Amino acid sequence: QTLIVTPESALVGKVELVNTLGRFVTLRFPLGKLPMLEQRLDLYRRGLKVGEVKVTGPQREDRIVADLAAGEAEVGDEARSH
Question: What is the C-alpha separation between 67 and 44, in angstroms, rounded?
Fold first, then answer.
């Protein structure tokens, strides 16, 4: 049986800051692996989906701002591409 290895292509970042009044978050990603503007990402906490964000910018180094589109966010939540 032949083993096929496929590299992981999903983006994975972490919520670093949450602004509940403005309904936006700051996300941190590995350098060189930032999401595109307007991209939607799901937020997970302990493996459960808790929200969705839409990347709006601005971007600085390995951080980017996203609007909270649905659900909620807490510092430490994981942001993953669909």
Answer: 15
